[in-house]
Amino acid sequence: MLLLSKSDAEILAAITPLMDNMMAGSTAINHAQHSRDFTERMLAIVTPDRLMMMCRDYQARWGWFGRREFVALFRRRDSIAVVWRQFCSLSDDEYVAEAVFVEHDGRLLIDHALVY
Q1: Of 18, 59, 77, 103, which one has the fewest beta carbons inside 10 Å?
Q2: Residue 62's domain spans which residues?
Q3: Number of domains into which the chain is organized
Q4: By the 8 A CB rule, do 14 and 21 touch?
Q5: pLDDT digits (tens, 9 = 90+) for 1-56
Q6: At 16, which CATH number?
């Protein structure tokens, strides 16, 4: 995995646009945007109906995703896992946003993501 040899700052620069797009697609409940950078595994899990159900649920409770603060980055043999502190518009609570990024055919993709 080529990304493993990069600095934390370089890795964050590469993955932040993917994470931003995914979160914006979630806020808009736009499956095409939300899933643009998903692996086939993630696409099979996050169907348009499933995304709509998940988004309506969290948006009713938390509001929309706001700013994120980087917490930690984990290098693994075949992936990069990243954790952020996530803020939402209707809550003062701090949430955990995490995602796992992989390289496939020279492209950076999201293989797992969750906010809790």
Answers
A1: 77
A2: 2-115
A3: 1
A4: no
A5: 688 889 999 999 999 999 999 999 999 999 999 999 999 999 999 999 999 999 99
A6: 3.10.450.50
Distance CA 54, CA 69 (A): 23
| DSSP percent split of the chain into helix, strand, coil, nearest 5 | 40, 40, 20
Longest dimension (CA), the chain: 41
Structure tokens at 112: 């797992």
State the CB neighbour count (10 A cutoff) for residue 96: 12
The label of the residue with tokens 């290098």 reads 75
Instruction: Report how far apart, in Å, the C-alpha atoms of 42 and of each of 36, 70, 107, 113 are.
Output: 11, 23, 15, 9
Token digits of residue 27: 């806020």
